[in-house]
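User: Could you go from structure to sequence for me? I need the amino acid at each position, not a summary. C-alpha cells:
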C-alpha cells in the first residue's frame, strides 16, 4: 500500500485518505466546474468563487492570520442532551478527540468521515457539473443504542464580491450586505448592493450592483438561521465555539449591513442504530432572474435523489477524464501518478492557473499567459474542445505587434504588460500542441481581436508572436531579456533594454523548430525560410558567445557582463540553459553531453534537480529578485520541479535514459516526501518547489498544486517515457524506459482511436524498436496516422531491440 504516516492511497488510487487531521499543513483538494470553483482542505477549509477568485469571491478564507485554514464550510453537530458539540470536518472544533477521522480526497470531491460521541458523520463536498454552486451531502448514523436528539449547524462566512476590496476596505464594504430568510423555501437569500470591479486598488467606488443572489439552504427543516457573523459567533469567540451553537439559540438575524454569514440550524432525532441523509446547498443565480427560487428549481434540487444523481455525474465526469490514459508499468508510483493524480492535477492547473490555492491567494495573478499556454497540455487529451475555446480566449490578450499582456483577469479582462521576453512565445507552443493532439486545423483560420485594435486569424497571431520575439533580439541576435523570462526572478538583468537571455535564445530556437512542420503544412515557404535562417543564426551566436567551457551561460546584462558562469561566486550554473540547449537541438553533441554532465554534477539533489547552483547569498541588484530570496528556496536554488522536469526531458533526448528516469522518480511526490513532516505539503500532487540542500529546511516543499510541473511531468511520461509522441501528422511510438522494465502496457485516446500499446523488453534496453505490429499485422514504421485505420482500437505491440 502506498502510504505515509498521515494517510494512504485507496487501492484503486482514486482517493488519498488522510487518517490524522494534524497534517503538517492543510492538505487541499479542488471541486469545480467550468464556472464555479472551490478549494477544500482536509478539515473543511477553503473558499469558493464564481469565475474568478479576485472579483467574484463567494466565501472567505483568511490568508494572513492564525489559525490557518479558516474559515471554511462547516457542519457542527450538537447533542441536545449532553450539550456536547463537534464538527463533521474536525475543524473548527479541533480540540476534540475523535474515535474516527478520515478525509477522502477524490477527483472533484472530498468526503470526511468522523465518529464521535457514538455519531458517525460522513460529509461529502462537491460541485455539480451543472450548477453554479456546491453541495455538502451529509449522512449521520446513530451508533449508540439509544435515541439521540441532535442539533445541526451548517455555516459558511460569506464575502460576495471583490476579495481584494474585502481585505482593504472591509469596514466600509460591510454596509452593502443583504441577507434575508425566505420562510417558504427555508433558504437564506444573500446579496450585496454594490460590486467593486476596479482593475487596480483605488479609492474610486463604482456604482454597480453585485449581479447575483446567493442561496444557502438545507434539505432538513430549518429551526433557526443567522445572516450576522457577529450574532452567530458572539463576542470574543470564534468558529470553534459560536454562541448560537453553545446556547442552541439562533438569533434569526436578517442583515442589511454587517459581516455576512450563512448559518442554518436544524433539529433532528435519530433512533438507535438509525441514519439520516441530508444536504446543505449553496449556489448563485443571476439577479436577472426575478424569482431566484423558481429559476433554480429549488424544490427538485433539494431532493436527495437529485443530489445523488449530481454526485454520480461528477464521478462519471472524472472516470471518463481519467480513462483517456491508462498505464501499467513495473513502477507503482509512476502508474498511480499517471493514472490518477498527475492527470487530475493537470486538470486543476488548466482551470485554476496560478490563481486559487492555499499558496495562491487569487488576488494578484489572474491567469498567466505563459502558464495558460502550457497548462493546456493535459486537458487537450481529454477535452480538446475546451482547449480550443481557451486558446481563442487567451489570444484576445495579444497586441497587434505580437506582444502580449503577461496575465489577465476574467470578468474585468484586465491584465499587466510586464514585458517578460518569453511570454508571447508560449502562444505558438500552445497552438502547435493543440494541433498535434486534435489535427483541428480549422482553428488557424478563426479570427480573433487584438487587445489594442484590429484583428487577425489565429495563424497570424501565432506568426506575429514569433516575429515579435525575433524583432526583440539585439544586434548580435540574442533575445533581449527585458523584464525577465520564464524565470520571473531574473528581473533586473536588462533594465536598459540591452540585457540578453541565453535560455530565451534556446527557447526561441525551440519554438521556431516546433513551428516548421506547421509552416510546411500551410505552404508558407517565405516564413519557413526566414525562421529557418533565424534558427541557424541562433545556433551560431549561441555557440560562439554563450558557451562557458563546460556549460552554457544564462544571460548577459545591459553592460555585457555574464550571468551563470563558472567564474562567479554564486549562480554559476543555471539549469534551463543546459536542458533547453538540448531540447532546442541547438547544442552540438559534445556540448550537449558536457552541459548535461555539469548539470548532473552540480544540480542533482535527492528530490530532483535544483534550478541554480550555488544559490545567491549576496544581493545582486543587477540580477534581480532571485538574489534577495533565501538560498535554497523558490527560484534561488530550490528543486524547482517545473525546471527539473525539463532536465529530465533533455536527458531523455540526449540518451541518458537511466538518469532521466532516476530524476523523474525522485520528483514523484511520494518519493520526494518520504520525510513528510519535513516536506509538509500534499504527497499526492507536485509542488512548485522542494527546498534544496542549500537551506537548513532542506526537503520542505511549498506551493503545491498550481505549478507547470503537473503538465510537463504528465506529458514527459506519456510522450517520451512511454513513447506516444504526437505531431501534426500523427503519433510516433518511441519508448524510453529504464532497462529494468521487462515490459509495460499503456493506452491513450488519440484522434478518436484507442491506442493500446504493449512493449516487451527482453534484453533490458532503454529504447529502440525492433519490430512493431498493429492489430496483428507487422508494420515497417513506428509512425501511426490514425486516419489510415478504420478500426476504433489499435493494438500496437512492439519489442525493444
Ligand atoms: O515561470 C514562472 C511561472 O510563470 C510562475 N511561477 C514561477 C515560474 C518561474 O519563475
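Assistant: Here is the amino acid at each position, in order:
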Amino acid at each position: 500500500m502506498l502510504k505515509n504516516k498521515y494517510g494512504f492511497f485507496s487501492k484503486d488510487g482514486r482517493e488519498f485518505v488522510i487518517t490524522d487531521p494534524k497534517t503538517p499543513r492543510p492538505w487541499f483538494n479542488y471541486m469545480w466546474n467550468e464556472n464555479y470553483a472551490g478549494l477544500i482542505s482536509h478539515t473543511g477549509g477553503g473558499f469558493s468563487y464564481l469565475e474568478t477568485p479576485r472579483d467574484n469571491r463567494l466565501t472567505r478564507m483568511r490568508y494572513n492570520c492564525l489559525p490557518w485554514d479558516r474559515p471554511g464550510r462547516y457542519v457542527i453537530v450538537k447533542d441536545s442532551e449532553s450539550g456536547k458539540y463537534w464538527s463533521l470536518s474536525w475543524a473548527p472544533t479541533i480540540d476534540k478527540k475523535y474515535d474516527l477521522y478520515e478525509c477522502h480526497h477524490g477527483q472533484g470531491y472530498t468526503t470526511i468521515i468522523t465518529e464521535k460521541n457514538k455519531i458517525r458523520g460522513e460529509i461529502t463536498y462537491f460541485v455539480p457539473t451543472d450548477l453554479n454552486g456546491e453541495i455538502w451531502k451529509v449522512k449521520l448514523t446513530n451508533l449508540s443504542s439509544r435515541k439521540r436528539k441532535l442539533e445541526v449547524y451548517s455555516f459558511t462566512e460569506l464575502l460576495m464580491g471583490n476579495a481584494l476590496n474585502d481585505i482593504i476596505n472591509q469596514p466600509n464594504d460591510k454596509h452593502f450586505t443583504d441577507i434575508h430568510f425566505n420562510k417558504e423555501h427555508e433558504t437564506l437569500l444573500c446579496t450585496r448592493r454594490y460590486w467593486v470591479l476596479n482593475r487596480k486598488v483605488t479609492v474610486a467606488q463604482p456604482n454597480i450592483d453585485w449581479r447575483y443572489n446567493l442561496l444557502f439552504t438545507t434539505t432538513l427543516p430549518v429551526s433557526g438561521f443567522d445572516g450576522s457573523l457577529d450574532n452567530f459567533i458572539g463576542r470574543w469567540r470564534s468558529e470553534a465555539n459560536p454562541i448560537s451553537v453553545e446556547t442552541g439559540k439562533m438569533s434569526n438575524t436578517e442583515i442589511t449591513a454587517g459581516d455576512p454569514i450563512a448559518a442554518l440550524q436544524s433539529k433532528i432525532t435519530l433512533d438507535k442504530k438509525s441514519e439520516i441523509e441530508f444536504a446543505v446547498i449553496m449556489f448563485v443565480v443571476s439577479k436577472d432572474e426575478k424569482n431566484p427560487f423558481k429559476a433554480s428549481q429549488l424544490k427538485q434540487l433539494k431532493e436527495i435523489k437529485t443530489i445523488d444523481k449530481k454526485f454520480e455525474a461528477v464521478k462519471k465526469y472524472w472516470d471518463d477524464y481519467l480513462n483517456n490514459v491508462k498505464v501499467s508499468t513495473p513502477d507503482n508510483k509512476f502508474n498511480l501518478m499517471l493514472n490518477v493524480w498527475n492527470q487530475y492535477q493537470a486538470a486543476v492547473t488548466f482551470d485554476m492557473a496560478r490563481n486559487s490555492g492555499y499558496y495562491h491567494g487569487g488576488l494578484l495573478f489572474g491567469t498567466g499567459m505563459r502558464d495558460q499556454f502550457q497548462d493546456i497540455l493535459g486537458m487537450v487529451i481529454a477535452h480538446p474542445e475546451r482547449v480550443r475555446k481557451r486558446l481563442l480566449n487567451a489570444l484576445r490578450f495579444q497586441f497587434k505587434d505580437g506582444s502580449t499582456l503577461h496575465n489577465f483577469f476574467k470578468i474585468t479582462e484586465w491584465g499587466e504588460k510586464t514585458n517578460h521576453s518569453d511570454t508571447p512565445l508560449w502562444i505558438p507552443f500552445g497552438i502547435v500542441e493543440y494541433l498535434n493532439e486534435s489535427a483541428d486545423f480549422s482553428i488557424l483560420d478563426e479570427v480573433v481581436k487584438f487587445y489594442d485594435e484590429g484583428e487577425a486569424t489565429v495563424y497570424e497571431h501565432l506568426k506575429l508572436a514569433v516575429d515579435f520575439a525575433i524583432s526583440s533580439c539585439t544586434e548580435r541576435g540574442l533575445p533581449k531579456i527585458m523584464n525577465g523570462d520564464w524565470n520571473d526572478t531574473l528581473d533586473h538583468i536588462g533594465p536598459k533594454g540591452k540585457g540578453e537571455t541565453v535560455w530565451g535564445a534556446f527557447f526561441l530556437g525551440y519554438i521556431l523548430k516546433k513551428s516548421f512542420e506547421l509552416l510546411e503544412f500551410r505552404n508558407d515557404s517565405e516564413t519557413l525560410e526566414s525562421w529557418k535562417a533565424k534558427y541557424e543564426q541562433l545556433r551560431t551566436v549561441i555557440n560562439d558567445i554563450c558557451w562557458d567551457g563546460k556549460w552554457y551561460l544564462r544571460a548577459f546584462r545591459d553592460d555585457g557582463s555574464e550571468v551563470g558562469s563558472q567564474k562567479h561566486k554564486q549562480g554559476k550554473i543555471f539549469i534551463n540553459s543546459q536542458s533547453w540547449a538540448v531540447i532546442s537541438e541547438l547544442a552540438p553533441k559534445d556540448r550537449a553531453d558536457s552541459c548535461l554532465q555539469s548539470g548532473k554534477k552540480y544540480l542533482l539533489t535527492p528530490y530532483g534537480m535544483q534550478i541554480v547552483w550555488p544559490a545567491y547569498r549576496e544581493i545582486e541588484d543587477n540580477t534581480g529578485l532571485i538574489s534577495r530570496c533565501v538560498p535554497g528556496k523558490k527560484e534561488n536554488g530550490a528543486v524547482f520541479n517545473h525546471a527539473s522536469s525539463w532536465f529530465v526531458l533533455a536527458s531523455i533526448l540526449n540518451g541518458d535514459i537511466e538518469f532521466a528516469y532516476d530524476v523523474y522518480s525522485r520528483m514523484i511526490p511520494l518519493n520526494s516526501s518520504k520525510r513528510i513532516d519535513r516536506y509538509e505539503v500534499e504527497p499526492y500532487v507536485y509542488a512548485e518547489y522542494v527546498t534544496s540542500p542549500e537551506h537548513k529546511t532542506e526537503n520542505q516543499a511549498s506551493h503545491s498544486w498550481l505549478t507547470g510541473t503537473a503538465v510537463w511531468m504528465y506529458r514527459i511520461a506519456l510522450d517520451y517515457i512511454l513513447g506516444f509522441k504526437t505531431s501534426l501528422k500523427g503519433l510516433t511510438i518511441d519508448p524510453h524506459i529504464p532497462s529494468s522494465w521487462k515490459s509495460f502496457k499503456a493506452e491513450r485516446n488519440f484522434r478518436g482511436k484507442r491506442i493500446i500499446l504493449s512493449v516487451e523488453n527482453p534484453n533490458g534496453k532503454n529504447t529502440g524498436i525492433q519490430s512493431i505490429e498493429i492489430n496483428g499485422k507487422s508494420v515497417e514504421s513506428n509512425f501511426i496516422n490514425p486516419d489510415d485505420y478504420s478500426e476504433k482500437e489499435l493494438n500496437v505491440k512492439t519489442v525493444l531491440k
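One structural detail worth keeping in mind: Residues 332-352 form the longest helix (21 residues).
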